[in-house]
Amino acid sequence: MLTKLLIPFRVFINLTWAITTTAIIGISVVIVGIFKILLPFRFAQHFFSNLGNAVFRLWAYCMSFLFQLTQPMHWHIEGDLELHKKGWYMIMANHRSWVDVFVLMHLARRNMPMPRFFLKRQLLWVPIVGWGCWTLDMPFMRRYSKEALEKKPHLKGRDIETTTRSCAKFRHIPTTVVNFCEGTRFTPEKHKKKQSPYRYLLPPKAGGTAFSLQIMGDQFEAILDITIAYPGKNNRPVLWHLLSGQLRNVYVNIRTLPISDDLIGDYSTDDAFKAHFQKWLNQRWHEKDAIIEQLQDEINQAHQLR
């Protein structure tokens, strides 16, 4: 019934659902965080971390429902998610849109440890959302320009320190660490500026992924190589397309990769390992690009047959 509504009504319903559920669940997570601060004991910390994680999973279910609330949404998922909630995994994903976050929430809601994203430090000061992410031990990264590093060389390596501290916390609670390896969302302008060798992707940055594996490689059970695509007219959807009910199809390809010994090393000091890891990640990105190109070609052929 709701799928027949005009766009303004869809936006109102979807936005109300998203804001209300996020506010209620976010406040609940913040309350859990207050108890974590007041009771800095190992048992209490473990209990409240698990409680916060359970509340976070509820938010994932709410965001998953958002895809179906006012639109006939179709999921096309290749691969499998035969995982378990008590494991540890690392996701390598491309980044097309902010909608990608909700896609990963949909995938994680049932059989995957709840994801932890590397966030920009500015998000820490967003009321409720930022505080909730802090409670969930999500790492907040501060980007430094080349000019800033030249003026203050001691800032170099701060992100590595943040990654190390955050991953250390993840050892005590089942977690899926998410790496959007491109470091930013895809746009044609960024694609041209970076002179990307890929048709649908930006060049991947290997550092964050390599450091995560270096710190937690012995604990991760597998790498989940996830390719997200929105073939067709809205191939880079913004939140408006989701809220207005104009997002019809989401394609996800999932490949479960073993973590071999040659993927774990000192990325910052070992030049041979650094070159090897960059080559390995670039190869994964070539395969992702081919997957998206195939999906786009299939969509174009389907439209031509109509």
TrEMBL record:
InterPro entries found in the cross-reference section: Plipid/glycerol_acylTrfase
Coiled coil: none
GO cellular component, one term: plasma membrane
Name of the protein this chain belongs to: Acyltransferase
SMART domains per UniProt: PlsC (SM00563)
Transmembrane segments: 12-35
Any GO MF annotation of the entry: acyltransferase activity
Keyword Transmembrane carried by entry: yes
Keyword Membrane: yes
Keyword entries, A-Z: Acyltransferase, Membrane, Transferase, Transmembrane, Transmembrane helix
Source taxon at top rank: Bacteria
Cross-referenced SUPFAM superfamilies: Glycerol-3-phosphate (1)-acyltransferase
Phospholipid/glycerol acyltransferase domain boundaries: 89-231
